[in-house]
Amino acid sequence: MHEDAPVLNAKLRDRVGSRYAKRIRETGGLPAVVYGHKEDPQPVTLEAREALRFISRGEKVFSMELDGKKQFVLLKDLGYDYLGTNIIHADFARVDLNERVDTRAHLKFVGEAKGLKKAGAVLMHPVNELQLNCLVTNLPDQIEVDVSGMDVGDVIHAGEIELPVKTMKLLTDPDTVVVQIIMKAEEPESTGEAASVDGSAEPEVLTAKKEASGDDEKKKD
Fold first, then answer.
1. 93 — alpha (psi -120 to 50), left (phi > 0) or beta?
2. For a tag on the chain, would you pick the N or C end, based on fewer CB atoms within 10 A?
3. Same domain (yes/no): 86, 106
């Protein structure tokens, strides 16, 4: 893991604030903050292209070189622009590679469920991630869930999913329904009956012009 962790070269920032962060981004940098392990938070600047390349491929643990020293950090949070598309800030926590952390792992459903061959069958997955506790060196990008053997009425709970590493601990409630196959309820067909039971009554035409009364005729004369 020590050799595989991507290296991020960081420089200390002497100024903070949105105006200075904007200048950093305009010159190809990515503003970031490093904190944790009872040390003061450090505002730093990363090379944006390098950092975003690692982040986009799912890397979470990095070897960060700062002021001639190397430390391992864990990507904790990302800030996006007002459109929610471009990364404009990153938060990193200092870590010991032997410590355990709480994390979330995305679930990837694989296989073609045999139950879906039945008309009206629907696969539901109300949960798309699991909460785990694991070593920093074992952070998973995703966990695969094989649904190929599922039939109508079958359910997979969080506690039934095999975790990639035995030392991982599941934090999600083990009884949580992760995926199930149900039959879609059929909507009742319309009877086509008219509003009137015997069909003899006709609706009042509200836009029809009413005949003038005798008093109204006298007023016109």
1. beta
2. C
3. no
- From residue 17, alpha-carbon distances to 21, 77, 89, 113, 212 in Å are 6, 18, 12, 52, 78
Output the pLDDT for position 184. 85
Q: For residues 146 and 177, give the distance between their C-alpha atoms in angstroms, rounded to a whole number.
A: 15
Full-model pTM:
0.64
- Give the domain range for residue 120: 101-183
pLDDT single digits (tens) 75-123: 999 999 988 889 999 999 999 888 898 999 999 999 999 999 999 999 9
| CA 131 to chain centroid | 13
Q: How far apart are CA 77 and CA 178, in angstroms?
A: 25
Q: In what order do the strands lie in the sheet with 155-157?
A: 121-124, 177-183, 155-157
Condensed to tens digits (0 to 9), the pLDDT of residues 165-179 reads 999 999 999 999 999
What does R_g of the chain's alpha carbons equal in angstroms? 31
Spatial distance between the Cα atoms of 52 and 77, rounded to a whole number of angstroms: 13
Which residue is associated with the tokens 């083990």? 174
Report the chain's terminal Cα–Cα distance, integer Å.
Answer: 103
Intervals of the chain under pLDDT 50? 1, 187-214, 217-221
Q: Which residues contact 45 (CB under 8 A, 6 or more apart)?
A: 10, 11, 12, 13, 24, 29, 30, 31, 32
Number of domains in the chain: 2
